[in-house]
Fold:
Amino acid sequence: MNIESQRLRFCKYTDNEFEYLADLLNNPEMVKYIGEGKTKDREGAKNFLEWIYHTYNLGSGLGLMVLEDKERNNQVGHAGLIPQVIEGEEEIEIGYWVSKEHWGRGYATEAARALLHYGHHQLRLTRFISLIQPGNTASQRVAEKIGMTLEKMIIQGNQDVYVYSTTKYSRFKSTSLNGN
Structure:
């Protein structure tokens, strides 16, 4: 699995990235629209990292990965294809999370486009979603820029969440994009 874009390299998390993840999860501005919007202490960050490792076992190309700026070799956030169950249906979410000091530079859109391309061309999936809380207008714009549309609102973890999707059909179809 090798996912890259013009500026970004996607790297699986290792224990070496724990401090970076812990800093993200301990920043109130960074977690405002993640889950219940609450920061996590070091134990919570450790549990989150274990969850990330678990998603790697669910399939090739799945799970959150660290986003690195290829030119500067620094971490700018994380993104990935995340297995979700929404209203009893298995879905693949395009998730993206850019650290605050890198907001406004187009990293989230670039990462989301790369994941959409990878999911279509390498995993042969035809449907993707993004779960976005109503107040997170920046993430809504990213979803729209990659061709997603608002499908519905659901309640997830006691939160209102918009479900943006690439299409309303073809869940987990293992066919090529031209239907063969």
About this structure: The beta strands are 8-12, 63-69, 74-86, 89-98, 129-132, 149-156, 159-165. The two ends are 23 Å apart (CA to CA). DSSP finds five helices and seven strands in the chain.
